[in-house]
């Protein structure tokens, strides 16, 4: 997918295209990494590219669960707290390929679910007892959920860009050029692994 979302006229398609564009930016940041590199945390935080991808898959899947009013089976408060911390880390028994595949599966489910919803104004009840969800709002719309997914994914795409540049100097456009097979120009070269 190129660096800009396509100029679509259908609102649903446009919102999904923006989510896909940001999702691809995160995937591009992982291009060419080993599992070990995907686990590295080169900044002051504990964020890694593999952990961000795992987190984004969990978050997007959670929002689709909310849209469908489907129980995510997240367990008790203690279980959710532990799972929340774990979903930011690529565990020693997990691979980058596995979390990328899961992210792609979640993306496919998002598109499938949203395509079946007749009205983007459909209410999505706000879960209670979650500290970062507003207590004074009864429901969001599906449209709001999609816009939130753009926001959430874009925020973490920026994190992934910074982490990747800290790992090996690779930058977003060079990685995008490598992923999409752009020809090299005088001013932009596709990323290539170090010899």
Task: Please provide a brief summary of the model.
By secondary structure, this protein is mostly helical. The protein has helices spanning 11-29, 35-39, 49-68, 77-86, 96-116, 142-168, 172-180; strands at 123-125, 139-141.
Structure description:
- By secondary structure, the chain is mainly alpha-helical.
- Helices cover 57% and strands 3% of the residues.
- α1 (11-29) packs antiparallel against α5, α3 packs parallel to α5 (96-116) and α3 (49-68) runs antiparallel to α6 (142-168).
- It starts with 10 loop residues before the first helix and ends in a 15-residue tail after the last helix.
Which key terms come to mind for this protein?
mainly alpha, two-stranded antiparallel ribbon, 7 helices, globular, Four Helix Bundle (Hemerythrin (Met), subunit A), about 200 residues, single chain
Number of structural domains: 1
Mean pLDDT: 93
SS class? mainly alpha
Percent in helix:
55-70%
Kindly state the number of beta strands. Answer: 2
CATH topology: Four Helix Bundle (Hemerythrin (Met), subunit A)
Number of helices: 7
**Broad CATH class:** Mainly Alpha
Widest sheet, order of strands: 1-2
CATH superfamily: dinb family like domain
Please provide the ordered H/E string of secondary-structure elements: HHHHHEEHH
Span between N and C termini? Answer: 27 Å
- Main sheet makeup: 2 strands, antiparallel
Q: What is the approximate shape?
A: globular
Please compute the radius of gyration using only Cα atoms: 18 Å
């Amino acid at each position: 997918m190129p660096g800009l979302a396509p100029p679509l006229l259908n609102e649903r398609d446009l919102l999904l295209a923006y989510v896909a564009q940001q999702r691809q930016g995160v995937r591009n940041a992982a291009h060419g990494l080993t599992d070990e590199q995907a686990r590295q945390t080169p900044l002051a935080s504990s964020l890694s590219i593999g952990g961000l991808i795992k987190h984004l898959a969990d978050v997007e899947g959670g929002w689709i669960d909310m849209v469908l009013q489907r129980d995510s089976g997240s367990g008790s408060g203690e279980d959710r707290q532990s799972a929340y911390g774990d979903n930011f880390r690529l565990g020693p028994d997990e691979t980058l390929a596995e979390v990328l595949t899961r992210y792609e599966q979640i993306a496919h489910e998002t598109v499938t679910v949203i395509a079946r919803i007749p009205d983007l104004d459909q209410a999505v009840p706000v879960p209670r007892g979650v500290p970062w969800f507003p207590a004074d709002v009864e429901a969001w719309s599906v449209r709001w959920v999609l816009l939130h997914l753009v926001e959430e994914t874009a925020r973490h795409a920026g994190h992934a860009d910074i982490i990747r540049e800290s790992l090996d100097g690779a930058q977003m456009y060079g990685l995008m050029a490598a992923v999409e097979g752009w020809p090299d120009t005088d001013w932009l070269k596709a990323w290539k692994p170090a010899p």
